[in-house]
Amino acid sequence: AEWSEEIPHCEVVLCSELYEPGKSSMACSHPLGSFSYLSTCTFTCEEGYERLASSSATLQCGASGQWNDSQPQCIAVSCPTLQQPQDGAISCGEDFTFGSSCNFNCSEGYLLKGAITVTCTSAAEWSEEIPHCEAVQCPSPVVPLGGQVSCEAPSHPWGSVCNFSCDEGYDHQGAPNMQCSRSGEWSAETPTCTATPEPPLNPTILGLAAGGAVSLSGLSLAAWLLKRIRQKANKFDLNSTSDIEEPLQTYRNSIDSLI
What we know:
By secondary structure, the protein is an alpha+beta fold. The chain is built from one helix and 15 strands, in the order E-E-E-E-E-E-E-E-E-E-E-E-E-E-E-H. The strands form six sheets. A three-stranded antiparallel beta sheet has the order 1-2-4, with no helix packed on it. Strands 6-7-9 form a three-stranded antiparallel beta sheet, with no helix packed on it.
């Protein structure tokens, strides 16, 4: 009066236990028991990582004891591939994934415009605008007043030289030339041209020159006056027998009356 076997009973179906994968978090719900039928687990990737498109974010344990999909994996996001800049170079890590950085530099005679380093962010974008290299150029030099400047190249690239000179009557103050450096700055300040001062006259020589000029002028005037008086006197002849008398000469108290 016994059953041939023990009385059977029903147990909930179990699925394989899941583990939290790297770079992600896992949240599960077990209504009938741990990792059993109808248990669900949802996976969330950490910042900078994304789930593979081939897997589902949420898994559920089925009646057959199998999860409805494979356990998802999270991989780092990737930023756009960078190219070596023209007239420059780039140095990066193994790839262009989240957290990786790239450094830029330019060839001699060129300046880097932009950030030296860019980093791949969690949004799969580079942290800065991609830099580029530009040829070094110095600003146009200032032409000094009373002088002129002569340059090797109109664009004033790195290494070019500008020479300065002053006009006649001006003295040069400062460097005779300046060179454009690799930083885009001139190697020297712009020179100036100052008017050359007249040499001072010796007071003794100045006095003698003035006195001599006055003496010579006085003697010349006296000789000229005497000559004019004699010329006018010759016009009168006291022994003349002519009935017509010459009119009297009127003299004035001025030099004009003798002319």
